[in-house]
Amino acid sequence: MEKNNLFVKAVNKNVRTSPRKLALVCNFIKGKKADIALRDLEFTRKRIARDVSKTVKSAISNAENNNQFDIDNLFIKEAYVGKSLVMKRYRPRAKGRASPIKKPFSRITIILEEKKVKKGSK
Fold it and tell me: Does the global pTM surpass 0.90?
C-alpha cells in the first residue's frame, strides 16, 4: 500500500508552561528516533517532559493507526513550540498598588517521519 503523506503530526494546544521552558525539552528530542525520545523524556528532570511525552505518544499512535506507518522506523522530524493564551492576574503590593502576573500557556507540535529503509544490496 502506497503512503501519500510522509509525515504525521500531533498538537497539544494548551500546556500550562512558558514556551521558553518548553522549547528546551523539544530541542532535546529533535531528530531522535521515537522510542529513544520517549526513553529520554522519561528520565528528564523537567516537569513539562510528561506533557511532551504524551504528545509524542499521540503522534506515534496517529502514525500507527491512521497511516499504517512502521513504529520502529519513526523519528522526530520537528518538535516546536508556539505561544497560546496568557492568563493575567494581579498581586497586591505595598501602598495600595497592584502588579501584574502573566501565566502563559504553550502549544506543542510534534512531527514524525518514517525513515526510508533501503533494500539490501550487496
Answer: no
Grid cell digits, residue 66: 491512521
Which segments of 11-103 does DSSP mark as H helices, in order? 19-29, 34-42, 49-65
pLDDT, one tens digit per residue, over 81-93 is 999 999 999 999 9
What is the distance between the alpha carbons of residues 115 and 89, in angstroms, rounded to a whole number?
46
CATH code of 25's domain? 3.90.470.10
Inside any domain, residue 122: no
Burial class (CB in 10 A: 0-12, 13-18, 19+), 122: exposed
27 domain-assigned: yes
Average pLDDT over residues 2-6: 62
What residues contact 107, with CB distance under 8 A and at least 6 apart? 11, 12, 13, 14, 15, 81, 82, 83, 84
How many domains is the chain partitioned into structurally?
1
Residue 2 located in a structural domain: no
